[in-house]
Amino acid sequence: MFNNLSDKLDKALHVLKGHGSITEVNVAETLKEVRRALLDADVNFKIAKQFTNKVKEKALGQNVLTTLQPGQLMVKIVKDELTELMGGDAEGINLSGNPSVILMSGLQGSGKTTFSGKLANYLKNKKTKKPLLVACDVYRPAAIDQLHVVGDQINVEVYSDKDNNDPVAIAKAGVAYAKANGFNVVIIDTAGRLAVDEAMMTEISNIHKAIQPQETLFVVDSMTGQDAVNTAKAFNDILNFDGVILTKLDGDTRGGAAISIKSVVNKPIKFIGTGEKMEAIDVFYPSRMADRILG
Ligand code: GDP
């Protein structure tokens, strides 16, 4: 994960570690390299600049130039700032409703259906939760079948209605079915399109209004870099979602989405997807991710 970024940051900070005494020039040079590494990882230019400015401010504030181990202090400052940028403390999902309704949103192919299954499985394993999956993609019958395949794999019931082409009605019926049958979590998988368009936004917004979920999650493919951030912005404007799910972190992703998304939409990343299997789900901990990035 993020190998390229990790290597570059390591090299950037290595310069400082090698020096007995550190000058302002060394610090400036290091921060330039750090910024370059972030830009290469597809972090937005403004965010990368703000980031290095903050690190610089902190470094000078903490007298990095006169400390005994300036390299280590710089690494710590970079790590703390990275953690802050990615979200600070980890946040859970709101399961206060009965049933708790969780709405999944995102583009087609982002990993919504897969993640819906992963989340259902994750919650089911918590013993006190009995999840129901609801298939609201009325445009692609294959999407409904896919959710059934996922449901069978994890032994979770799937509510669908292939004769109904109104996603709002299906979502409502799914919640009613959950109430009537003792499910305490409802995960609603919705249709996405290949790019943000008005019809998709209107539809997801209508579902959102109709069912008033406790938790609205935005699922995004971490391989899509700055596009991921732009898509997140568009969905957040419409849905004011509660959290982000970053998928495909097992792939060759450069890291830009993970690093930038929180500060652009001001919503936490809650879970990550790290593979196609139902078990490939992890709670997102910004500090652990920063540790991983900095090696
Ligand atoms: P949806 O259109 O948003 O419902 O996306 P899908 O759940 O159908 O996922 C699209 C593709 O991405 C499928 O082939 C999934 O197996 C794959 N996928 C989803 N999440 C992950 C992940 O975390 N890692 C990897 N490697 N593949 C994933």
From TrEMBL:
The keyword Hydrolase applies. It comes from the Bacteria. GO terms for biological process: SRP-dependent cotranslational protein targeting to membrane. Belongs to the GTP-binding SRP family. SRP54 subfamily. It is found in: Cytoplasm. It comes from Winogradskyella luteola. Part of the signal recognition particle protein translocation system, which is composed of SRP and FtsY. The chain holds residues 1 to 295 of 443 of the full protein. Its EC number is 3.6.5.4. Its main location: cytoplasm. Involved in targeting and insertion of nascent membrane proteins into the cytoplasmic membrane. Binds to the hydrophobic signal sequence of the ribosome-nascent chain (RNC) as it emerges from the ribosomes. The SRP-RNC complex is then targeted to the cytoplasmic membrane where it interacts with the SRP receptor FtsY. Residues 268-281 form the SRP54-type proteins GTP-binding domain. Coiled coil: none annotated. GTP binds at residues 106-113, 189-193, 247-250. It is an enzyme of class 3 (hydrolase). Composed of three domains: the N-terminal N domain, which is responsible for interactions with the ribosome, the central G domain, which binds GTP, and the C-terminal M domain, which binds the RNA and the signal sequence of the RNC. It catalyses: GTP + H2O = GDP + phosphate + H(+). This is Signal recognition particle protein. GO terms for cellular component: signal recognition particle. GO terms for molecular function: 7S RNA binding; GTP binding; GTPase activity. Keywords: Cytoplasm, GTP-binding, Hydrolase, Nucleotide-binding, Ribonucleoprotein, RNA-binding, Signal recognition particle.
